[in-house]
Design a protein that fits this description.
The chain has helices at about 10-25, 40, 60-70, 95-115, 145-165, 190-205; strands spanning about 5, 25-30, 50-55, 75-80, 120-130, 170-175, 210-215. It is an alpha/beta fold. A seven-stranded parallel beta sheet has the order 3-2-1-4-5-6-7, sandwiched between helices. The longest helix is centred in the middle third of the chain and has 22 residues, at about 95-115.
């Protein structure tokens, strides 16, 4: 039975990924920052879901999770993290505190999780970080959402840097599309089920390729 660890599963796409992989017959380890929501608890009835606590900005909790996973081999490590602050502010108006928080949450902490848990990923396994099309420097022709864009571009750079140190491993920066979540808003074009189904299909095709890839949920390659 294949095993995936999904970090960040309290709601939205993370929760949707848990449901999708359970439906596909996988063993799922799901992390949450605090008390698991009822929708996640309900999925435990499958008998293939294990819920762990993890605040990704806490280095001690990351280390503790790595220790608790002793003897566990993962086929996919999927780190899903993201906050959106100062959405409409040009970068010069973003406070130091908000900019530091968004970079630590969206870029630094996910790679700390990757570094700590990579030893548990099978040699032919896949490491995934949840990015955004807004993190593409090449596609940024409209500006806007500047602090968030910067954090996801930083995440992409760190993911590629990690892949350069571990070139045999498959590392994917995954763009989920514009999804109807608390962050995406009601005007988004995709529902969660469509996005996560596409993500799972895309990762199945990318498995074992090695190197770093910036992919959209529907399998399209996104320019860095």
């Amino acid at each position: 039975m294949s095993t995936i660890l999904i970090a960040g599963t309290s709601r939205g796409i993370g929760l949707g990924l848990v449901s999708e992989y359970l439906e596909r017959g996988w063993q799922v380890i799901a992390t949450v920052r605090s008390e698991p929501p009822p929708d996640l608890r309900a999925l435990e009835r499958t008998g293939r879901l294990k819920i762990e606590r993890l605040e990704m900005t806490d280095r001690g909790q990351i280390a503790s999770l790595a220790q608790r996973l002793a003897g566990t081999q993962l086929d996919i490590l999927f780190v899903n993290a993201g906050i959106l602050l100062a959405r409409n502010d040009p970068i010069a108006q973003v406070s130091d505190e908000d900019f530091a928080r968004i970079l630590v949450t969206n870029a630094l902490s996910p790679l700390r999780v990757v570094e700590a848990l990579a030893p548990h990923v099978a040699p032919a396994g896949t490491i995934v970080v949840m990015t955004s099309g807004l993190g593409s420097v090449a596609l940024n022709t409209s500006g806007g959402t500047e602090a968030y864009r910067a954090s996801k571009a930083a995440l992409n750079t760190l993911a590629r840097s990690y892949a350069a140190r571990d070139p045999k491993r498959t590392v994917v920066a995954m763009g989920p599309g514009w999804v109807k979540t608390d962050m995406g808003g009601p005007g988004a074009v995709l529902d969660v089920a469509t996005s996560v189904r596409g993500i799972a299909d895309t990762l199945a095709k990318a498995a074992g390729k090695g190197g770093s890839h910036f992919l959209k949920y529907n399998g399209e390659t996104v320019p860095w």
